[in-house]
Amino acid sequence: MFESNQHIQPHPVNLNQKASMIDSQWSPRVVAQMNDYQFKVVRIEGEFIWHAHPETDEAFLVLEGTLRIDLPQRSVHVAPGELFVVPRGVQHRTAAEGEAKLLMIEPCGVLNTGHEGGERKAPNDLWI
C-alpha cells in the first residue's frame, strides 16, 4: 500500500456553497490546492480591469450566471458548466451583467489583476 504524508481533505468542496460565503464581489478565495495550482471561487458583477498574466494561463469555469471575457479581438460568453482558458500573456477583461459565480484555476501566487494592481487588486492566498 502506498503511504503519503500529504494532507487528505476531509470532504468534497461544494463550490456554489463556498462562493455564497464570500462577502464581496471581485474577492477570490482559495477552496483547494493541487500541486502548485489553486482553485479559487469568486463572485463578480460589472466589468473588471484589462490585464494579462505574462507567466501563466488562467482558466475560468462558470458555476452560475454568464461570464463575458473580453479579448483584444473578440468577446467570449461562457455559460454555467462551461470552461474557458485565457492563454498566458493575453490581455483580457472579465465581466458579468448580473452576478456570476466562477471557479478560477491558476498557479499559486497569481494576482487577480496581473501586474496592473489598482483598487480591485485582491489579497492573495485567502482560503474560505
TrEMBL record:
Domain Cupin type-2 per the UniProt entry, residue ranges: 46-105
At the top level, the lineage of the source is: Bacteria
Alphabetical list of Gene3D superfamilies matching this protein: Jelly Rolls
Residue stretches in coiled coil: none
InterPro entries in UniProt: Cupin_2 (IPR013096), PKS_Associated_Protein (IPR052044), RmlC-like_jellyroll (IPR014710), RmlC_Cupin_sf (IPR011051)
Q: What is this protein called?
A: Cupin
